[in-house]
Amino acid sequence: MATIYDVAKKAGVSPKTVSRVLNQDAPVSQKTREAVTAAMNALGYVPSHAARSMKSSKSGLIGLVTGAISNADEAVSPAGLPELFIVQGAQAIIETSGKTLLISDTGGRADRVPALIRTFQEHRVEGILYVADFHKPLDFALPGENIQKVLINCFDDSGTPAVVPDDEGGQYELTREVVAAGHRRIAYLTLAPGMVATKLRLAGFRAALEEAGIEHDPELVMATDLFGSPGEHQLIWDAIEKFFALDNPPTAICCGNDRLAMAVYGILRKRGIAVPEEVSVVGYDDHRLISETLFPALTTAELPYSAMGARAAQLLLDLLSDPAKPLPGAPIRISGQVQRRGSLVRPGQMQGNVINLNGRNEK
Fold first, then answer.
1. Rounded Cα gap, residues 124 and 51, in angstroms
2. Environment class of residue 37 by beta-carbon count within 10 Å: exposed (0-12), middle (13-18) or buried (19+)?
3. How do the pLDDT tens digits run along the chain, 363 residues long?
4. What CATH number was assigned to the domain covering residues 167-302+339-362?
5. What's the CA gap between 190 and 198, in Å, rounded?
6. Domain 61-160+305-334: CATH class, spelled out
7. CB neighbours (10 Å) of residue 46?
8. In the chain, count of helices (H) and strands (E)?
9. Residues of the chain with CATH 3.40.50.2300
10. CB 115 within 8 A of CB 163
């Protein structure tokens, strides 16, 4: 393997001059620079990034710990969208900064996280991004007290900077859209009761109803999400049976995620209830493999994973460039957009109308 001394000999310059060309820390003539570059190419010389980073105290490396790679093939997750989108958002920002993102996967095992972070530290990463698989509190302490970290899709009690989805705001805006379409009887099939997102989205749902002067009816809210386990379909079926046995059944159903909405479509059709002619259905996540392929296309709220990754990466870069910068006092909440599609219409609006393939109503 060629060394800096080999390059210097071939280029006819001193090793110190080669170092100046590599580090760009002193003036060198264009002719000398070209000679050194030609020598490196001819010898196949690759500079030691580790040695240069030790000299400058900055490696240019950012570590990211995730389960996105090992979980990418899982059909079901509490989040509804693969956390790989978070990684993509972070990568886009890190790339523009000129730094390199090193990604390490947990294999679905939280007990591997400390070892992965230690490995990153051995490679002198400047900061670490930690990505959770869904919005939740972090139930263990990340090692590495002397390295800047930013959490994504999770939060802890020690004040580590964090970026999370605005679940309450997202459900609030989505429910307002349903209300604006003229619905007053709105059912809600929630995610599992113990999830952070469930509590927040229920708050957003109720806030939108209260704002519209609609009384919250507990009979129209049921938890049916079992993360895709066999009993989940029966829970959804039972909930729909209960809703439509009421004297005043719902004209719209909000679902905790798009996967639940897809199941609702099938159950309603088996019961002879047309979507959206007789009942509107909305989801959550904007999992486009579902939302854009269902017929009619599904109205849903975006779970802004890519934006969360990008915002967290930029926050980490900002903190690294200015260590005196004040830390956020609370997790930063990222909002997504409501995507209005053909599954949401005004009650009774479909009579005499047709739905085109884009999900819009036409006379």
1. 11
2. middle
3. 788 889 899 999 998 898 888 877 678 899 999 998 999 888 888 776 555 554 555 778 999 999 866 665 444 444 445 678 999 999 999 999 989 999 998 887 888 888 898 888 888 899 999 999 889 999 888 887 789 999 999 999 999 999 999 999 999 999 999 999 999 999 999 999 989 999 999 999 999 999 999 999 999 999 987 776 777 889 999 999 999 999 999 999 999 999 999 999 999 999 999 999 999 999 999 999 899 999 999 999 999 999 999 999 999 999 999 988 888 989 999 999 999 999 999 997 654 444 333 444 443
4. 3.40.50.2300
5. 6
6. alpha beta
7. 9
8. 13, 14
9. 61-160+305-334, 167-302+339-362
10. no
How far is 297 from 59, CA to CA, in rounded Å?
47
Give the pTM.
0.80
Crossing angle for the helix pair 15-23 and 30-43, to the nearest 10 degrees: 100
CB count in 10 Å sphere of residue 24: 9
Q: Do the Cβ atoms of 168 and 155 come closer than 8 Å?
A: no
In this structure, the strands spanning 186-190 and 221-223 are parallel
Strand order of the β-sheet with 148-155 is 100-105, 61-66, 127-137, 148-155, 162-165, 332-334
Residue 78 has a pLDDT of: 44
Q: Say if residues 194 and 229 touch (Cβ distance below 8 Å).
A: no
Concatenated DSSP letters of 45-104 = ----HHHHHHHHS---EEEEEESHHHHTT-S--TTSS-THHHHHHHHHHHHHTT-EEEEE
Q: What are phi and psi of 247, to 5 degrees?
A: -60, -35
Identify whether the C-beta of residue 124 lies closer than 8 Å to the C-beta of residue 50. Answer: yes
Instruction: Take residue 210 and report the two structure tokens written for it.
Output: 């209260």
